[in-house]
Amino acid sequence: MKLFRQTVYQALAAALFAGLLLTLLQQLGVTPLILQAEQYELAGTTSHAATSDHSHSEAAPGHHQVDEWAPQDGLERHFFTLLSNSLAAFGFALILIAAIRAGQLAGRWPQPGLPGGLAWGTAGFLIFFAAPSLGLPPELPGMVAADLEARQLWWLLCTSSTAVALVQIVLGPLKWKFLALIPLFLPHLVGAPQVMGPHFTHPDPTALAALHSLHTQFIWATGITNALYWLALGAACCWLVARAPLSAEGPAPA
């Protein structure tokens, strides 16, 4: 029970740090691209509504008057972004700390410390972002996507398969490490669910070109942001675990 409480406290501390860092990085490189895409999305919706026929316009008001809730721009949006980032980081931190503790017992995995933290962070980045992004790149507002449930199932397959592959690479006997190729490539051989047709449906060709350019920038920005986030989260988790090593006496004094 003591170890469980300790793990939760460590995960909370690491999550607050990593969540704040991710939010700041998003505000610098990712959010501006999202806001630009949202402007094109709004303009495209307005243009489509203006060119719709009269019968469609009469049928549409009941649909368009139902607005989904969204946080207001400014402090409220920043707060909910920080909250969601920290909650996600808390879940990932629990997984990382459990894995680091298991690594301590196994004695063969990356140990607590800066090099170990960067190794664990790299593993998290590869499992939860890089590998899934090969099949399902990050999406901008207004993009047409495949069925959500199908994407979630494929994401779970990809992350779990990549994790198994990394474990085999790190812990498997040298002559059997090649077996890691099976789970590593399996989800990509199955194929991620894809939408049939264009990803953007804006009626203006100039806007479409701009959206495709924004999407390319968005993929790079989210990739760099998530890489820094995962490295920071791995380093924070390892630093916290190193301050409270597994022992009968409990946490080491600060």
UniProtKB/TrEMBL annotation:
Which residue intervals make up region (Disordered)? 46-65
Organism, per UniProt? Aestuariirhabdus litorea
Q: What is this protein called?
A: Cobalt transporter
Top-level division of the source organism's lineage: Bacteria
Upper lineage is: Bacteria, Pseudomonadati, Pseudomonadota, Gammaproteobacteria, Oceanospirillales
UniProt keyword Transmembrane helix present: yes
Report any Pfam family annotated for this entry: CbtA
| Annotated signal sequence range | none
Record's keyword terms, sorted: Membrane, Transmembrane, Transmembrane helix
